[in-house]
Amino acid sequence: MLDPLGLFEYRVVLHVHSRYSDGSEPPEAIIAEAQRAGIDVLWLTDHDTRRAAQEPGAGYYDHLLFLVGAEITPPTNHYLALGPVPLVGADSPLQTVIDHVRASGGLGFIAHPDDPGNPAARLPSYRWSDRAVDGFTGLEIWNHVSDWGRQIQSVPQGIRAALRPFRGWPEAAPATLAAWDAMGQGRRVVGIGGADAHGHHVGMWPFRLTIFPYRASFRAIRTHVYTEEPLDRNWRTAEAMLLESLRLGRAAVVKPALGDEQGFRQWAEHSRHDPVAMGSEQPYEPGWRLRGLAPVPVDWEVVHDGAVVHREHGTLLNVPMGAPGVWRTVVRRGPGHEVWIYANPIYMR
Ligand SMILES: [Zn+2]
Ligand SMILES: [Zn+2]
């Protein structure tokens, strides 16, 4: 049977800044752009404030679900907090921030863990430096702004990149993916993808340029979240459903610029067990198979404990999981074989 789990898929854009921190537009304008982009959920994460939860307020705006988290931002160790959590000061140690978000019932993700900074633009690195911490939900494995910036090593390169901001931006940082696979040996570590949308303007009229207009950022990197039931029309219930699915790792990181179809699925099945979804932790035994389904023919890469162990082209994936470990897929698409999707792992213990 195709897609035996029958999950519901939602296109979420998270990690977005408004004028309440360093974004260029008020939340109302960003909501309007998100509605035009046709996404399902906009998750605003201003630096160290959840002010937008009051004004204009979280909830449904027609079909768009607007939710408000925050990015807690000390000089390094930025932390994305999702859920209705009260914020602690950004001067707290990262472990304190993590524990507080968790105790308040929220989810937390290490933002852009290997942010390179940029010597050419004199931007410092906002990388994850305090690696001794634990208790976070997961990692932002792909961040549009941070990963785009990795290709820029000089001012001329920066100007060229700013003029063509959606050309050829890199894949997720190899160091981040390696850390993700390594940490997954011990526990579930959920990968999400962030737009890090600011709508930044640079220069002055008439040479003003908006490097990443919100509209474009909403097509850069999304996180698709899978739920067992359709999202509730009560927005608080819907937020709780999304948080639960994210906590369980039922999510895939998608680059919609390569195609914004829904329909990607990854699961594992066994003749003597019920199928299990992305993010599941399962006792290993022989006979489990990793299954995938794509809405168009794609290039599948099966990654086991950080190494690509299988490649295949098509709409269906069906490979034996021959050993315990962290199993996930990378889906490439189009003539350039660019990464379209990073799926969350299934953990065979
Ligand atoms: Zn940040
Ligand atoms: Zn940010």
Please give a quick description of this structure.
By secondary structure, the protein is an alpha+beta fold.
Structural summary, described in words:
18% of the residues lie in helices and 35% in strands. It contains 7 helices and 20 strands. The protein starts with 7 loop residues before the first strand and ends with a strand. The mean pLDDT is 92. Bound molecules: zinc ion (ZN) (2 copies). Residues 71, 73, 78, 111-112, 126 line the site of one zinc ion.
Distance between the termini: 26 Å
In total, the number of domains comes to: 2
Report the count of strand segments: 20
- Cofactors and ligands present? zinc ion
SSE layout and pairings?
Blueprint: E1 8-16, H1 27-37, E2 41-47, E3 59-61, E4 64-72, E5 79-82, H2 94-103, E6 107-110, E7 138-143, H3 144-149, H4 155-163, H5 174-183, E8 190-194, E9 201-202, E10 209-210, H6 214-217, E11 222-227, H7 235-247, E12 251-254, E13 265-270, E14 273-277, E15 281-282, E16 289-304, E17 307-320, E18 325-333, E19 338-343, E20 346-348
Parallel strand pairs: 1-2, 2-4, 6-7, 7-8, 15-20
Antiparallel strand pairs: 1-11, 3-4, 4-5, 5-6, 9-10, 11-12, 12-19, 13-14, 13-16, 16-17, 16-18, 18-19, 18-20
One zinc ion binds at residues 15, 17, 71, 196.
